[in-house]
Amino acid sequence: MVLNQHLNRSITQIQDEEWNRVKDLFPFPEIKKDQLSFIQRVLTTKNPLLVSATTGVGKTAALLVSLLAVKKPEEKVIIFVRTKAQINVFLKEFGLIYRKIIANWDKLKEHFNFNLPLVLTILGKNELCVKRNKKYPGEMYTHICSLTKCTLKQKTKLLTNSQIKKIAKNLFSVYPDMNSKEDLVSVYENTNYCPYYVNFILAQNADVVITSYPFLEDYFLFNYLFNRLKIDLSKAIIAVDEAHNLFQVLNLEITKSILEKAVEENNHPFIQELLEKITETQVFNYKLDEEELKNFEKEILKKLNAQYRKEEIKSINAYIAYHFIKESQGKRVISDTKRLSTINPLPSTILRKIVDARKIVMMSGSFEPIHSFQRLFSLPKSEKLQLYSTNSKNSKYMILSNKDYNGKFQYRDEKYFLKIAKAIDRIHKAIPGHVLVFCPSYKYLNDLTENYFLDVDISETPKMDISTVQAILSNAEEKKAVACVVGGKISEGIEFTKNGKSIIKGVIITALPFPPPDPKNQILREELTKKYGKKFAIDFTIIIPTVQRIIQSFGRAIRNENDKAVHILLDPRGTRFNKEFRFERYKTIEQIQKAITNFL
After folding, report:
1. Cβ atoms < 10 Å from Cβ of 580
2. What DSSP element (H or E) covers 151?
3. At residue 404, does pLDDT exceed 60?
4. Of 562, 581, 424, 421, which Cα lies nearest the Cα of 503?
């Protein structure tokens, strides 16, 4: 491996042993300057570290390599990600690192727990059960599992150490070509053991565990995770990916339609009460008498058990309502007349659980302004690092400054949508590759594509399988347009690459994605105003979320320093964010088309 001069200059600044591991682990021929800065800070700091790193820096590889280099054999790296799709990004990167581990095994073998490094994902039973029935919601699977006489569970409890090691070796065989969590799950499914319990048994010996935000947000799930992993916080190295999402976390929600069906299935006063509360916009603290709650639980589970024995479960919605009621105890609940949502407006209450970890790294592509997040998170003695991609020459940021394209809600009439649809079509023709078209909401997307006939190849839906979209674009012979939603599945943590290069040549944002003026935002603003002041509250409920959504959406095009793409905002109101994006201003679509042709 030929290391660049940046690494050689810095090797004396940090412990030689850890830097030697960095050299042996890093999966690419050269460590970029920003990656070096990232790795150096992770290895040297003893305080929580907040890293703001734009797309193209290579932060995933830098994070994994530095955490693997700094961890001790008895410690675990635990990575929390927002979505299951982001798990795949880490697994794919580790597949590259694993090849380096094998190549340098003689130097690294004393550093890992299980003869070879073990990287696992912690997923729910609904994700791992080989007998799962998709008609049951994920909330029910723990209880359904307890009722099921499953031979796989019994066999798993009798696993010997040699059998566990055999399963681990099968996992090692998939690591070099690993692209998704499905690759890991497929190994479990071929063992004739319960994947869920095998996963937790192996996780006790794992060097790296990747899991989702609920295990960080929820107090009981957090404790359950550490109990199952049999590890203390003092021996945990914790990383939180896309950590800006810890602000405005919604833990649970239930819709009005589910509550109406739940009342039909079980006309219990607790469910009736929630249905009554959902009829008006309000915020309330939710707490029931413990004895009454236990009686309600017994009633629901008794009925569910009886239905399960007869193989006719009819209380699915009542169970979902029970789950919401149970998990909402002691929390604030918001009603917007369509759904009830629990909310935790201050991420510092979530992060208190991890302050005793041996090392904490929180990173995001949109930690801006980073000092405001540092204050919001209330992590004692935290440090910050800002890294900006050096590939700005390969990115062009353009804005249509024509006031006729103002995307304010009150201007979105038929004339507006027809203009936007025509503009997108003309811009797409000028871009020699796939284009992502981001809309501020699903309603806007539907209006644009269905009512005003914007011709796109794929339209995002809330339940869309993103891996299918990735496969379609990767294998397409002709360029395609994908209509997406800012803040949706495609906008964050998703890569569209082929042979390591981005296949997205253009990103178009149709209108500024300001957060809606809903009850949730109002409560957040009130809470933040009390603690930090009015300006801070407005920034975090309006300005910062808008900038973050733009950054995340634009970030889908550039995945490494050799990618080249255009980023276009069709809303003239975006000129207020010129400091963040340095937009080139254009008055007409013809001018944008010409600029695209000259650039790409």
Report:
1. 15
2. helix 151-157
3. yes
4. 562
Query: Could you give the count of Cα atoms lying within 13 Å of 140 in the half-sphere of its Cβ?
Result: 23
Closest by alpha carbon to 208, among 77, 98, 362, 66?
Answer: 77
Q: CA 39, 41, 43, 49 torsion: positive or negative?
A: negative
Structure tokens, 115 = 């003869």
- Report pLDDT digits (tens) over 354-398: 999 999 999 998 787 888 889 888 887 899 999 876 446 788 999
Each residue of 113-149: b (16+ CB within 10 Å) or e? bbebbbbbbbbbbbbbbbeeeeeeeebbbebbbeeee
Token pair listed for 2: 């030929």
Mean pLDDT of all residues belonging to the chain: 87
Joined tokens for residue 552: 């995340």
Residue 340 DSSP SS3 = strand
Distances (CA, A) of 246 to 80, 276, 537: 11, 30, 16
Contacts of 564 (CB under 8 A, 6+ apart): 394, 395, 505, 599, 600
Closest Cα to residue 600, out of 516, 509, 504, 519?
504
What is the average pLDDT across 326-341? 88
Distances (CA, A) of 150 to 129, 130, 142, 362: 11, 11, 13, 40
Q: Give the range with max mean pLDDT: 39-43, 189-193, 555-559.
A: 39-43
Using CB atoms within 10 A of its CB, is residue 210 exposed (0-12), middle (13-18) or buried (19+)?
buried
pLDDT band per the 50, 70, 90 thresholds, residue 2: very low
Least confident of 43-52, 136-145, 157-166: 136-145
CB 283, CB 333: distance < 8 Å: yes
d(CA 480, CA 473): 7
Q: How many CA atoms lie within 13 A of 476 on its CB side?
A: 21
Residues 161-174, mean pLDDT to the nearest whole number: 87
Which residue has tokens 């009981």?
220
HEC secondary structure over 193-220: CCHHHHHHHHHCCCCEEEEECHHHHCHH
pLDDT tens-place string over residues 255-308:
999 999 999 999 999 999 999 999 988 888 899 999 999 999 999 999 888 888
Burial of 262 (0-12, 13-18, 19+ CB in 10 A): buried
pLDDT for 358: 95
351: part of which helix (H) or strand (E)? helix 348-351
The whole-number pLDDT of residue 251 equals: 67
Instruction: Choose among 185, 179, 150: nearest CA to 167.
Output: 185
Residue 485 pairs with which residues in a beta bridge?
Answer: 439
Separation of alpha carbons 23 and 523, rounded Å: 48
Cβ-proximal residues to 275 (8 Å cutoff; 6+ apart), any chain: 256, 259, 260, 262, 263
Q: Report the distance separating Cα 584 and Cα 154, nearest Å.
A: 64
* 537 touches 375 (CB < 8 A): no
Cis peptide before 432 (omega within 30 of 0): no
Entry pTM: 0.81
188 alpha carbon, distance to own chain's centre: 24
